[in-house]
Amino acid sequence: MKIRKLKRSKITKHKGSSPSPRIRVLLDRASSCIASGRLGLAEDICREIVKLSPRTSEAYNILGLIYQERGMIKEAIAVLHKAVDLDASNANAFFNLGTILGQQGQYDQAAVALQKGLAIAPGTPKARNNLGLALARMGKLDDAISSLEKATELDGHYGDAWFNLGDAYYCRGKLQKAAEAFQRCIRLVPDFVEAHYNLSIVQHDQKLLPDAIRSLQRTIELAPEHTAARHMLAALSGETPDSAPPEFVTHLFDQYSHGFEDDLTGRLEYRIPNRLRELLYLHLAPGTRFPRAVDLGCGTGLSGQAFSDIVDYLAGIDISNNMLEQASRKDIYNDLIRGDICEQLPQLADLYNLIIATDVMVYIGNLEPLFSAVSRKALPGAYFVFSVESLQGQDFTLQATGRYAHASAYISKLAVASGFTVLAQEQTGIRKEGETWIPGEIYILQKKTT
Fold first, then answer.
1. Per the domain annotation, does 158 fall within a domain?
2. Domain range for residue 318?
3. Total number of domains in the chain
4. Residues with Cβ < 8 Å from 313, sequence gap 6 or more?
5. Is 94 among the domain residues?
6. CA distances (Å), 302 to each of 215, 256, 358, in order?
């Protein structure tokens, strides 16, 4: 589920210091100018204040908001740091600093600033909400939930806080609480599109399929262009489009990135990258290394991690910015590229000795474009290793989970047409759904040398 951007704190008069009456009048005028969109005049007034009273923290706080509005993020951060350095009791400056840092992805620093502000003004629901978002992005879901719960306690009509609390509950696996939070949000903001969509995902996971369909239909009524909702509605209606829309995959993994790896390897018992590595090893000479490898749909880097010690250069492609942030922290990739794999792979200048695609084809039905792109980027003798979910009969189908399954005969047909030999095919459990293993296969293909 999508975690929304941190919201900017509104200007409120700072009461931690006592400026002179003249300075107070000027601060009020600057605030009024910002409220009416007259940023240039507001900046002029703040600069006049700084000349008259250089240690007026609130003038720098207001300048920070002006710079942020203009997209001058570095300047905004600098003057907000100046504001809190001048007056460590200026809660609003801490809140504004934390908000901007969070919007820049500097979640640890954002959390520190917001916590300092809340130590001064603990009853500020928007700051509690923003802190919850920063903590969630840091993977501290329990702390995030505590902060978001406090935000809703402080303001029970704060729709965004209920929405974000639902996200955090969902990522923590607390489905009923997530559903209740989204329903509360919808009662407060009936046309909140993403709340309806996220509620449908929770209902889907709860096996409440008629309810999920109704929530998806409502999402589409409010936002006819919502491709992720259309994809899930198609899945629940038995339709099979060629692939999941990019927006669906982006939405899924952007919201899931902070808890993805722990959930995948823990609750879902996902071990496919290591199994592929073991199966590939059976077909390699001792000491084999790969000069160039690319990890398609690299996610947080689980597959790259499994193969990193036998490759000299490793690139990764993923559609989710948040996943790429997680992958970059592993420090195993030489290059990380954001985008759709079928669009980005053909644009790469290099050819590869090893191409990896784990848990990728479940989001693509028609695999012909992918196999064609891989074939063009594979050196003679290169290996293509991947996993699919199992299917009997037709080439591929979209399952009620929103994931695709593929038939082994279809994979074999594509391999031959793309110039690959199937070296190995092994049936295995892909991951768990509840207590049941999802059946699948892992493949080792090799590009023909002639």
1. no
2. 253-447
3. 1
4. 291, 292, 293, 334
5. no
6. 33, 15, 9
In a domain, residue 39? The reply is no
Looking at residue 425, which CATH number applies to its domain?
Answer: 3.40.50.150
Give me the residue label for tokens 């474009």: 369
Closest CA to 2 of 167, 145, 140: 167
Neighbours of 97 (CB within 10 A): 28
Q: Dihedrals φ, ψ of 221, to 5°?
A: -60, -40
- Cα separations (Å) of 12 from 301, 354, 408? 43, 57, 63
Would you write out the chain's pLDDT as a tens digit for each of its 450 residues? 443 445 544 444 455 557 788 888 998 888 888 888 899 999 899 898 889 888 989 999 999 999 999 999 999 999 999 999 999 999 999 999 999 999 998 999 999 999 999 999 999 999 999 999 999 988 899 999 999 999 999 999 999 999 999 999 998 889 999 999 999 999 999 999 999 999 999 999 999 999 999 999 999 999 999 999 999 999 998 888 888 888 888 877 776 655 555 666 566 667 899 999 999 999 999 999 999 999 999 999 999 999 999 999 999 999 998 899 889 999 999 999 999 999 999 999 889 999 999 999 999 999 999 999 999 999 999 999 999 999 998 999 999 989 999 999 999 999 999 999 999 999 999 987 777 889 999 999 999 987
User: Would 264 be classed as within a structural domain?
Assistant: yes
Q: Count the Cβ atoms, other than its own, within 10 Å of residue 425.
A: 16
